[in-house]
Design a protein that fits this description.
single chain, alpha+beta, 5 strands, 9% strand
């Protein structure tokens, strides 16, 4: 039974996508039947030819409904002109099919025109056959029955027309939804690439800055105090391991492996450890926390950590020697305010460049969670970064 369902579905789809072939096949069979009946009846081509023409014209009832209806009407007039009543029934069926087709598949006005033409043609045919004016015939009743039949056919054609219109609207809506879904996927992929780029930049830039700073300091310290060089090497090793762990966690997101265990992302609670790590690289950093800390969601928490990390990385790279940095976390009533300032070179610092990838990444992180970030030289010297992250602004 399960194998028959796809087969029936395939047949149904083929029938829906090949309407002309179906109509042509039915018309061919009906025409062959007319030829057989004409041969058996012994009638001439003048008797059954117009009837065959009406049937053949129905092959284009869906592809060319107006032309098909005109052809059926012309051949119907020829049937009336020949005065042959033997094939009146198939001619009537062909006329009914043409009225249905032109109402369903043709323009709206064509349905009304077909209704009027069919009604007058039917009335003329009955008058010609004596069904209205004969003494034993109930003319109004016959004409009323014809009107009811034509109206029913016209109504069925109108219902089919509405159904075709609804199907077209549903298909158009499905295409629009599909296009919108593809666009959403592209936007999501672009946002994910930007997020990964920010994470890669922050992890690599911070780790390399600490490593380079420790390596330079250890090289000079090794000439006088070997113990300081050993400490620098230990800091380099710890920083490298931490960077490798962060890289593995970040790249692990790209793998399709549901069994992989990922380490938690850093948040505001890890800022203290970050400051200690930067202090170990030789930079004087002071941490100040104001207010009662609040547990932030993973996204804003990671954004706060990365902003502090990138700001301290910029201090290591650009502020110059003998620099002091201040990190202040102010837990306000509605938002977390982050300030990272230093007393280094200030306006000459490279991070003030508008195209700096570090500043761009920090602004993107703050904006992503409904916040804002300002960065620039401080009055009196140095460089400062101020970020504002609302508590409830989570996308």
């Amino acid at each position: 039974m399960s194998e028959d369902v796809p087969r029936l579905e395939a047949i149904y789809q083929w029938l829906r996508t090949h309407p002309f072939e179906i109509d042509a096949g039915v018309v061919a069979l009906a025409t062959l039947g007319m030829l057989f009946i004409g041969a058996v009846d012994g009638g001439s081509i003048l008797s059954w030819g117009p009837i065959a023409g009406m049937i053949i014209a129905l092959a284009w009832r869906r592809r060319r409904p107006l032309r098909s209806a005109v052809a059926v009407t012309v051949f119907g007039l020829l049937v009336m002109a020949t005065g042959v009543s033997t094939y009146l029934f198939p001619a009537t069926i062909a006329a009914f099919c043409s009225l249905y087709a032109v109402t369903a598949y043709g323009p709206r006005w064509a349905g009304w025109a077909g209704m009027v033409v069919a009604w007058f043609a039917g009335g003329l045919t009955m008058a010609y056959q004596g069904l209205i004016d004969s003494p034993g015939a109930d003319g109004p009743l016959v004409l009323g029955f014809l009107t009811a039949v034509l109206f029913a056919i016209w109504a069925l054609g109108g219902m089919r027309r509405l159904r075709i219109r609804d199907e077209a609207r549903l298909e158009e809506r499905a295409h629009l939804l599909e296009s919108e879904a593809e666009q959403q996927l592209r936007l999501a992929a672009s946002a994910e690439r930007a997020r990964i780029a920010r994470e890669m930049h922050d992890v690599v830039a911070h780790s390399l800055s600490v490593t380079i700073s420790q390596a330079d300091g250890g090289r000079y310290a090794a000439q006088h105090t070997p113990e300081a060089a050993i400490t620098a090497l230990e800091t380099i090793s710890a920083t490298g391991r931490q960077a490798l762990a962060d890289m593995r966690a970040l790249l692990g997101v790209l793998r399709d492996d549901s069994t992989q265990q990922l380490t938690p992302q850093p948040d505001t609670e890890a800022i203290k450890d970050l400051v200690e790590q930067v202090r170990g690289s030789g930079l004087t950093v002071q941490l100040e926390v104001l207010g009662e800390p609040i547990l932030l969601p993973p996204g804003p928490g990671l954004a706060a950590y990365r902003i502090v990390q990138e700001s301290l990385t910029n201090v290591l790279k650009h502020a110059g020697p003998e620099v002091t940095a201040w990190v202040r976390l102010a837990w306000l009533s509605e938002a977390l305010e982050i300030r990272v300032e230093d007393d280094g070179r200030g306006a000459a610092a490279t991070p003030a460049t508008p195209g700096s990838q570090g500043l761009i990444g920090m602004r993107e992180r703050a904006t992503l969670y409904g916040g804002q970030l300002e960065a620039g030289p401080r009055q009196g010297g140095g460089f400062g970064v101020r970020a504002y992250l609302p508590y409830g602004a989570v996308p």
